Structure formats: structure tokens, C-alpha cells
From TrEMBL:
Residues 12-326 form the Enoyl reductase (ER) domain. This is Quinone oxidoreductase. SUPFAM superfamilies: GroES-like (SSF50129), NAD(P)-binding Rossmann-fold domains (SSF51735). Pfam families: ADH_N, ADH_zinc_N_2. It comes from Mycolicibacterium goodii (Mycobacterium goodii). CDD domains: MDR6 (cd08272). Gene3D superfamilies: Medium-chain alcohol dehydrogenases, catalytic domain (3.90.180.10), NAD(P)-binding Rossmann-like Domain (3.40.50.720). InterPro entries: ADH-like_N (IPR013154), ER (IPR020843), GroES-like_sf (IPR011032), NAD(P)-bd_dom_sf (IPR036291), YIM1/Zinc_Alcohol_DH_Fams (IPR050700). One of its GO terms (molecular function) is oxidoreductase activity.
Length: 331
């Protein structure tokens, strides 16, 4: 039997819709019928050939996030059965098949039961963003109740989720963004800071009395990470970045006595190590969503295989109004 899939054939070229064979689950895997596939900025960078760290060689099927229905399970899988609704960050990097296909085989450790309160489209918008935010704020920064947290890029896919996660853990949350992002940041539950009109020194003074934020989470990179080093609290503050890939001076952070760590969410997919941690984190996402404390911000346009290039263009050009999700099958 065959399935429809979007194939990445060469950097910069449109994705090509092809009929290919439906894969079979190996031991420890499940076969999922994909209902929705989330589109991340990383997906567009891979298509442009600008994400060497993702280790994708064409031809390949892209798509990292998904929500769908289990249709068969491989040997040794006991936690899922046919008909289960699941979601996860499961492929589209390294040698793993991506989610822009009608079916995908996935390591059962990487997925979790879909939140009951969310649609398939909403669930597909969560995995990479939530796992990144959790690893930054919980695993690395050990976020405590009452902490003052600054999220750079609070209206972005990861930033919006990070704001909600930090609030769910009792933090006082502030987030930066441009003028067009202020309403979205406020709606997510953070104090909005317009970085284009407010100096770092000024908002650190206004909101922390000059002491600095307990945790600064950078989702932007570049000069924004440099700004993070001067916004963190003296002695006990921690900066964590999802895009700390450039060359930066640690002197400002060192003079404040702060600490730094990085997050590379793709590592379990690429290496095969600690994949079960992703599944456990997604169960926390489902718990928060079903408690009404986690809601993804979606682009309401309907994207399918037929207008897939429009979905990628919306993410690549920054014209989306929330997370872009491609509908693969009726939900």
C-alpha cells in the first residue's frame, strides 16, 4: 500500500508530493496515521539547506511535529494500542522520516497521549515548542515559584509556550517583542516589553530594581543573547538559550556572577539517547493543556498538501499569525 508524502528533493526547491510505500513499524515503534503536522522555523531552514545541524540529506520527508492516530504497533510496544490519539516531536531530522506524510513510524518513547482538551491541529503545534521550553526552564534553569523570568521573543512559537509554562510554575513573567507582538505577549500572560523602544538597562531597572531577572530565556540568539547576559540577576541568575550558536563574550555574565546553559532539543532524535524524556515531557504538556493552562497560538488559515508552499512561506517570511499547522487527514 502507498501513501502521499511531501518530499524535500533539493535545497530551495518546492517540496514534491509523491506516492511512496507505507512503512512498517520496527520493534519499539508505532505506525501513526498523521492528522496534523506542525511547521517550525527549522523546517524552512532545512528546506533552504541552511540547517546542517539537522543532518538531513535529500531526498527526505520533512516535518518534525505531529498529532495523529496509532494504526499498528511494533514488537515490544505495550503503552500504546491501535486507535490511540497521540502527539510528538518524532522525525524530519537525521535519517528519521518526517511528518509531512499520511503515515509515519515513530519510536514509541517519543510520543504521548494527545491532550483530551485540544484538537489535532492544536496538539501538533506543541511538541517542539513545549519540549524546548521545558528543557530550558525546568531541566536547565530549575524554575522556582515566585521567580522573575524574562523570555526573549515572547510571541514566537517557543516563547509563547515558555510564558505559559513559566506562569504555570508560579513565576512572574516578562517577555520582549516588537510593537506588533505586544498584544500577543500580554494575551499569553506576560508583561510585554517593546525591545525596540526600551533599553535593557531601563527595563531591568523598572521591573527588578536593577538587580536583574532570576532566569532569562533567549529564543532569538545573536545580540539578544548578549543582552541576556546584562539582564540576569547578580550572583544567582541563570541564562538559557535555544539559539546559543554564535560567538559571544561571557564577560558581562561573569561580572554579574551568573550562569549559562544551552538547549539542543534535536539531540535525542539525532543520537537515539534519552528519547523517553521527550515522551515524559509531553505528558506534562498534556496535563497542563487539560488543566486549561496551556493553549497554543495558531494561525487560523487552513493549510494542506495543496497549499503546502504557502504554509512554508508564511513561516519563512514571518507573516504567520501564530503556529502554522498542515492538515494531513480529516480530524
Amino acid at each position: 500500500m502507498s501513501m502521499k508524502a511531501a518530499v524535500f528533493t533539493a535545497p530551495g526547491d518546492p517540496l514534491e508530493i509523491r506516492e511512496i510505500a507505507i512503512p512498517s513499524p520496527a520493534p519499539g515503534e508505532v505506525l501513526v496515521q498523521v492528522v496534523s503536522s506542525g511547521v517550525n522555523p527549522l523546517d524552512t531552514k532545512i528546506r533552504r539547506g541552511q540547517a546542517a545541524h539537522a543532518r538531513v540529506t535529500p531526498p527526505a520527508i520533512l516535518g518534525i511535529d505531529m498529532a495523529g492516530v496509532v494504526v499498528s504497533v511494533g514488537e515490544g510496544v505495550t503503552e500504546f494500542r491501535d486507535g490511540d490519539e497521540v502527539f510528538g516531536m518524532v522525525g524530519g531530522v537525521g535519517v528519521l522520516q518526517g511528518t509531512l506524510a499520511e503515515y509515519v513510524t515513530v519510536d514509541a518513547a517519543l510520543i504521548a497521549p494527545k491532550p483530551r482538551s485540544l484538537s489535532m491541529v492544536q496538539a501538533a503545534a506543541l511538541p517542539l515548542a513545549f519540549i524546548t521550553a521545558w528543557e530550558a526552564l525546568v531541566d536547565r534553569a530549575h524554575l522556582d515559584d515566585g521567580a522573575q523570568v524574562l523570555v526573549h521573543g515572547g510571541a514566537g512559537g517557543v516563547g509563547c509556550i515558555a510564558v505559559q509554562l513559566a506562569r504555570s510554575r508560579g513565576a512572574q513573567v516578562y517577555a520582549t517583542g516588537g510593537p506588533a507582538s505586544q498584544a500577543a505577549i500580554t494575551a499569553a500572560g506576560a508583561v510585554a516589553i517593546d525591545y525596540t523602544s526600551t533599553r535593557v538597562e531601563d527595563y531591568v531597572q523598572k521591573y527588578t530594581g536593577g538587580a536583574g531577572f532570576d532566569v532569562v530565556f533567549d529564543t532569538v540568539g545573536g545580540v539578544t543573547l548578549d543582552a541576556s547576559f546584562t539582564a540576569v540577576r547578580y550572583d544567582t541568575g541563570h541564562v538559557v538559550s535555544a539559539l546559543g550558536w554564535g560567538t559571544h563574550s561571557l564577560a558581562p555574565l561573569s561580572f554579574r556572577g551568573g550562569t549559562y546553559s544551552g538547549v539542543f532539543t534535536l539531540q535525542p532524535l539525532l543520537s537515539g539517547h534519552r528519547r523517553a524524556h521527550h515522551g515524559r515531557v509531553l505528558r506534562q504538556a498534556a496535563r497542563l493543556a487539560d488543566a486549561g493552562r496551556l493553549v497554543p497560538r495558531l494561525d487560523e488559515r487552513a493549510f494542506t498538501f495543496e497549499n503546502l508552499e504557502a504554509a512554508y512561506d508564511a513561516v519563512e517570511n514571518g507573516t504567520s499569525h501564530g503556529k502554522v499547522v498542515v492538515r494531513i487527514a480529516p480530524s
